[in-house]
Each structure stands twice: as C-alpha cells, then as structure tokens.
Amino acid sequence: MMLAAGFGKRMRPLTATTPKPLIEVAGKALIDHGLDRMAAAGITDVVVNVHYLADFVEVHVSHRSVPKPEISDERRQLLDTGGGIAKALPMLGPEPFLLMNSDSFWVEGATPNLELLIGAWDETRMDALLLLAPMVNAFGYDGHGDFFMTPEAEVRRRKERSVAPFVYAGVAILHPKLFEGAPDGPFSLNTLFDRAIEAERLFGVRMEGIWLHVGTPKAIREAEAAILESAL
C-alpha cells in the first residue's frame, strides 16, 4: 500500500496546487520513486489512498501498469495513517503487505532496502516490521529520532526528552491482524505500533544507504544535492 492522501502542509506553497506525492525530486514524482522501488522488489499490485487533490494523484498513477494501482478513496474523510490502511484492508487481502509513505525517499546502499525488509520478515514473531534509518545517515531530518532497537531487532519507542538512534523511514511490512480491534474512523498508525511494542511483536531493520527526509521545499534541493554527491 502507498499512503498518498495527506495535505503536505510543510511543503507549501508547492502543495497549494500540486499534491505532495506528485512533487518532483531529481526529475521524478516522489510517488514514482516509491512505486519504482516496489516494482524492482517484485511487487505487482498496489493500493493507493487519496484525499487531497485526489483527482491529480488518481490520474497520475493510472498510467502505471507495474505495480498496478487500485484506489482507496478517502475524498469524503481523511482517515490518517491507521484509519486509511484499515479502510483499505479488504483490498489488501489476508496476507502481510508492504506499506510505504509516498514521500519515503532514500539512496540505496549495497543491498536494496525493500529486499532487506522482505528478507527479514518472520510472521511467527512479528505483527509489524519497520525500516529504520540511522540518524547519522538521515539528511533533512532535525528531530530526536523515533526508536531504539535491541540486538534481537525488537523496537522500543523513544522516551520524552531523550534522543533515539533510529527514525522510522516510512516503510514497513504489516500483518492485517495488527488491525484487530482497531478504532473506527481516523487514527494514527502509531497507536498500533505501540500496541505491538507491548506485545513484543514490533521489529525493525536497519536501513542501508542514505535516508532523505523530503518535508519542505528546501529539503528538495538538499535531497537532490545528496543524490548527486552519492553518484560521484
């Protein structure tokens, strides 16, 4: 599933007329960077949720054949990350699925990161597996991190007024059972991450390469500069 419904408020004024997933970085729309990575990982079908400037996003992805898009329509109500996925579950089916934010963006390391994530998935131990970027390899990010990770790859959330070494890169594998008993309507996926932490079923994979946080117009230029530098 590709999350593409948000307003992209921090990307204004660019998002006044263009939805954030269609903002271009290095000559390609953000959403296409993600969909191309899905295709390279062998993913053939994708659910894309839409809300803000939904027609633009829907028309744009309709031209793709791999992965083949199906639209989860949130035009009437934006459901946040958790609610949007919960609405799309009938389209996603009963098996674990890959989740990606439409602005998830990185420069690959030695092994493609989706390959790393898929290879690490273990349904017997996990309800969710997150791709985590080391803070030292995160460009354009000025936060305090999101998570710690144990030697066994279990994930623990950063406590208030502390700094964590990993930030969620906006990519995960989720099992539909994670959503059992989930709230109705809009809710954050973090609610379910916290529940999985309590059950000791939230795990992480350390991202290889460079994570680029493309959250503002200035960050686009920084991301493009980082791409050029990595190619030297």
UniProtKB/TrEMBL annotation:
Signal peptide: none annotated. GO terms for molecular function: nucleotidyltransferase activity. SUPFAM superfamilies: Nucleotide-diphospho-sugar transferases. It comes from Rhodobium orientis. The keyword tRNA processing does not apply. Keywords: Nucleotidyltransferase, Transferase. The keyword Transferase applies. It comes from the Bacteria. CDD domains: NTP_transferase_like_1. This is Mannose-1-phosphate guanylyltransferase. Residues 1-107 form the Nucleotidyl transferase domain. InterPro entries: GlmU-like, NTP_transferase_dom, Nucleotide-diphossugar_trans.
